[in-house]
User: What shape does this take?
Amino acid sequence: MSYNGFSEYVPVAERKKRAQKAAEKLKEKNPDISPVIIEGRKLARTWWGKAWNDNLERYSDYANRIDRGRSYVRNGAVLDLKIEKGKVTALVQGSSSKPYKVIINIHPIDDDTWENIKSSCEGKIESLQELIDGKFPKVLSELFMAKGRGLFPAPTEITLTCSCPDWAVMCKHVAAVLYGIGARLDENPELFFELRNVKIEDLITEAVKGKTKAMLDRAQTKSRRIMEDADIASMFGVELEYIDIGCDFSEKSKKRKASRDGS
Assistant: This one.
């Protein structure tokens, strides 16, 4: 209900109660719903969840409007949220008895940007778990967050729709879902790569490739040195001994030295 064009004020406790009842009713019909539940004061806890929210808030197109969704997502109004390739679908409880349907379409990362990110990661990430945990060098964090050439989408790459009667491009239901995505990435960061339509395995393969190549190069250098030393020994008919400077002779080396001194 509204008065003189203004929506009826609903206390926070009542909003939570309405959202909970709506979620229970919805779950009876669809047991597979996945509500967004915010625990504690922070909307996001992990690097990926925080980075998603920070990316949205730094754009002037969104900065002045996205805050409208904070209370909604905190109060459990996002009754269902699912992420797939290039698309997020959600149900949000508003002032109406029936939840509003929100659809967010996101463009995939363009090929040139993805190739540049993969090559930049070469040798800088140890494992998939390290990437998921957000434990990578600061230089990669800055690259991932770079405007227009990082992993995160700009407003021009995002299309927002909501079934509510609000005329605004970003209504509070859409804003709640955008924050809900950050919360969902806290639970499973791999969903981010599915959303941007790229394979996280490709990034890890490229990242580890650099370390593997460096290891192979060192191994090949050592092998070449051994082969060269063997050739020298064969040419001059002598046995080469390797002594670490600053270290004691091995017992074998000492015996050989004593034998030569006594002859």
In short: Residues 210-262 form one domain. The first strand starts at residue 2 and ends at 3. The radius of gyration is 30 Å. The CA atoms of residues 35 and 210 lie 40 Å apart.
